[in-house]
TrEMBL record:
<dbReference type="Pfam" id="PF01408">
    <property type="entry name" value="GFO_IDH_MocA"/>
</dbReference>
<feature type="domain" description="Gfo/Idh/MocA-like oxidoreductase C-terminal">
    <location>
        <begin position="132"/>
        <end position="347"/>
    </location>
</feature>
<feature type="domain" description="Gfo/Idh/MocA-like oxidoreductase N-terminal">
    <location>
        <begin position="2"/>
        <end position="116"/>
    </location>
</feature>
<dbReference type="InterPro" id="IPR036291">
    <property type="entry name" value="NAD(P)-bd_dom_sf"/>
</dbReference>
<dbReference type="InterPro" id="IPR000683">
    <property type="entry name" value="Gfo/Idh/MocA-like_OxRdtase_N"/>
</dbReference>
<dbReference type="InterPro" id="IPR004104">
    <property type="entry name" value="Gfo/Idh/MocA-like_OxRdtase_C"/>
</dbReference>
<dbReference type="InterPro" id="IPR051317">
    <property type="entry name" value="Gfo/Idh/MocA_oxidoreduct"/>
</dbReference>
<protein>
    <submittedName>
        <fullName>Putative dehydrogenase</fullName>
    </submittedName>
</protein>
<keyword id="KW-0560">Oxidoreductase</keyword>
<dbReference type="GO" id="GO:0016491">
    <property type="term" value="F:oxidoreductase activity"/>
</dbReference>
<dbReference type="GO" id="GO:0000166">
    <property type="term" value="F:nucleotide binding"/>
</dbReference>
<dbReference type="Pfam" id="PF02894">
    <property type="entry name" value="GFO_IDH_MocA_C"/>
</dbReference>
<comment type="similarity">
    <text>Belongs to the Gfo/Idh/MocA family.</text>
</comment>
Length: 350
């Protein structure tokens, strides 16, 4: 199967290109305007067409799949253009700028009778898969409090679109969709959202930190706290990536999934379960009654599963790995979070 990649920055080059290769896709066209990115694309895919825009790529390539790794504000118009041209579409996070754009994309996919698949690779993070296993095996008991964070030490503002004051820019749009999607997978949709957005770095143009709470009156819905900061070093001294309190036990996990580092180094996955955590990165399971501490097994990252499932869905052999309706819920939560940050109050989802 053939694919067009739109955008060849970090997302297009480091994430989508190698994962498409791992799933057996042929990249036949790449849309990139920046000279350096075009040079990288030509080096990585010497036989692919280099195009200035999606319209040109659609007219010159018969690829069945269009992968949007472009700035957030372009996702809805480019996605609709690709769907109306009869192509299946994968859209990197965030799926759309808001819920209204997500609805427009879903309607376009329904009219075209084509697949519209959000890219949520972190459903296959090593640590998230470990947590799901612990919960499935009831090692923690009913979850009472769930904390998940993406904290880094990056105090210098970079000149890139994600850090500009533009539609779809900022850390809530960048990392929020990962954290929200994982929480929705575990606990379902919340009833309300409360959010604080921060601008803490010198010369910051948009939010570079956030604290987000998801809540519900359901008795089985835990306290969910999500956040990200640019002023927290990684490692055992930092805030945990996950802190999950259950009635029986607590799970603590530090550090990030190792797959991004491997992809940045140029490794092309050769199997689905391709990247194990190092021994030191294993989580801590703390028995709530006895206080006994044990280490959970090293998690195994499985990002290549995503495009393998996309391929199967295109062949009619499986359901899409991520549903557009699920991304719509993530957009709704982000919309509510931004409103909450503006007015300082809880915002209820409808």
């Amino acid at each position: 199967m053939r694919a067009i990649i739109v955008g060849y920055g970090l997302a297009g080059q480091v994430f989508h290109a190698p994962l498409l290769r791992a799933a057996g896709f042929e990249v036949t066209a790449i849309v990139a305007r920046d000279a350096q990115r075009r040079a990288h694309a030509a080096a990585d895919f010497p036989h692919a067409l280099l195009c200035d825009d999606l319209t040109q790529a659609l007219s010159q390539s018969a690829a069945e799949l269009v992968v949007l790794a472009s700035p957030t504000a372009t996702h809805a118009p480019l996605g609709i253009e690709a769907l109306e041209a009869g192509r299946h579409v994968v859209i990197d996070k965030p799926f759309a700028v808001n819920q209204a754009e997500a609805d427009a994309l879903i309607e376009a996919a329904q009219r075209a009778e084509k697949l519209l698949i959000p890219f949520q690779n972190r459903r296959w993070d090593a640590d998230f898969l470990t947590l799901k296993t612990l919960m499935d095996e009831q090692k923690l008991g009913p979850i009472m409090r769930y904390e998940a964070r993406f904290d880094r030490f990056n105090p210098i503002v970079k000149d890139r679109w994600r850090e500009h004051n533009i539609e779809g820019g900022g850390l809530l749009y960048d990392l929020g969709p990962h954290l929200v999607d994982q929480a929705l997978q575990l606990f379902g949709a919340p009833e309300w959202v409360f959010c604080t957005q921060l601008m803490q770095r010198d010369n910051a143009q948009t939010d570079d930190g956030f604290e987000l709470i998801l809540g519900s009156s359901r008795t089985d819905y835990p306290y969910v706290a999500l956040g990200a900061s640019m002023f927290s070093p990684d490692g055992i001294q930092a805030a945990p990536r996950f802190k999950v309190n259950g009635r029986q036990a607590t799970w603590l996990k530090h550090g990030f999934d190792p797959q991004e580092t491997r992809l940045r180094s140029g490794v092309i996955p050769t199997q689905d379960d391709w990247c194990s955590e190092v021994d030191e990165a294993r989580g801590f399971l703390i028995d709530g009654t006895t206080g006994e501490v044990s280490r959970t097994a090293a998690g195994i990252g499985q990002w290549p599963v995503f495009y393998k499932h996309v391929r199967a869905a295109m062949l009619g052999e499986a359901r899409a790995p991520v549903l557009a309706t699920q991304a719509r819920w993530t957009c709704a939560v982000i919309d509510a979070a931004r409103e909450s940050a503006r007015n300082g109050q809880r915002v209820y989802l409808t």
